[in-house]
Amino acid sequence: MRKFILTVLLILMLLGGFLFNIFYTTGFFREVESSNSFGPIYQTIALPGVEDMAIARADSLLILSVDDRAARREGKEGIKGLYLIDLRDPSFEAFSLTDQLDFPFFPHGISIFQLDSAKYGLMAINHVDGNHSVEHFILEGKNLIHQKTITDSNFISPNDLVMVGPEEFYYSNDHGYTDGLGVFAENYIGIKASNVGFYNGQSAEIKVGRIGYANGIQFDSAKGLLYVASVRAFQVKVYQVDENWNLTLLEDIEVGTGVDNIELDPSGNLWIGAHPNLLQFASYAAGKKPTAPSEVIQISYTSENSTVKSIFTDPGTTISGSSVALPWGDYLFIGNVMDSKVLVLKK
């Protein structure tokens, strides 16, 4: 009898430790309060589910990836597509670039690459009925022209991408498994099975693996560095890029929050929208909770010293589920996965 009781207690202790680890490593015990060191709210832009953004700084054009996931979750038709804001117009009015497309388009991660004066390549991950593709566009002035649809067997679960050439890009697969226990293990246990791939203009190959939910991805051409957000590990991974686009891990930056999309400012600082409580965000995304906390962090990275600053936090009352933060001049644009608006702060 005593051996049985000890066995039961041991099992309960192991189960308790397992559950505590899930709660602790997903930020469940963190209390998120309102803080803002950037500047007050200047404006809100009434577009839902602006999960990612990209900027053509030379022409002051901001591209928004829009998908009303909350409406689709309820079986309703929602706004979707790519929208453009001319930042030289202080009204920040957004208009659709893709309402004339003749195929289903539910954009996720996006990236832009300058080709010529006022001409850009633009790529967007597209998820339709469980199938994944990358849609290749040309943005010339304020006109967007679809070029082609890219598919590859190594687009396992693409989340974000960053163009490094006219047709070349790195991309993140946020999961290595696609269903069942594998996805559960990645999401909750923290199994590191996701990866980063590279598309060379003709085909894709996986470059690095063993990442805990790879998400946002960004390339700093001046430094030859690739940054990858590991949501589940609360890390930003830093890779050296060689002449053949191979990757060597330099370090993991511990950030204490569930990092999502990564943007660069002109000085090379990283701006990241983040989810400080992953379990609450998961409940919010599933429609089980009305809000989820938000955070924006800034990372100043050097090989000798990196600083991580929390720029903005909110418990979900102002904005829920922040996923991207993009600075432009005195402004900071904050997007999200499922909320109904973009937040604009001004210094």
Describe what this molecule looks like in 3D.
This protein is mostly beta strands and 347 residues long. It folds into two domains: 1-29; 31-346, Neuraminidase. It is 14% helix and 49% strand. The protein is built from four helices and 25 strands. The strands form six sheets. Strands 1-22-21-20-19 form a five-stranded antiparallel sheet, with no helix packed on it. A hairpin with a 4-residue loop joins strand 13 (194-199) and strand 14. The longest helix is centred in the N-terminal third of the chain and has 24 residues, at 2-25. The protein is globular and about 80 Å long. The model has no long low-confidence stretch (mean pLDDT 95).
Layout of strands and helices, then pairs:
Elements: H1 2-25, E1 35-36, E2 41-45, E3 50-56, E4 61-67, H2 69-73, E5 80-86, E6 94-96, E7 107-116, E8 119-128, E9 131-140, E10 143-150, E11 158-163, E12 169-173, H3 180-189, E13 194-199, E14 204-211, E15 214-220, E16 225-230, E17 235-241, E18 247-254, E19 258-264, E20 270-275, H4 278-285, E21 294-301, E22 306-314, E23 322-328, E24 331-336, E25 342-346
Antiparallel strand pairs: 1-22, 2-25, 3-4, 4-5, 5-6, 7-8, 8-9, 9-10, 11-12, 12-13, 13-14, 15-16, 16-17, 17-18, 19-20, 20-21, 21-22, 23-24, 24-25
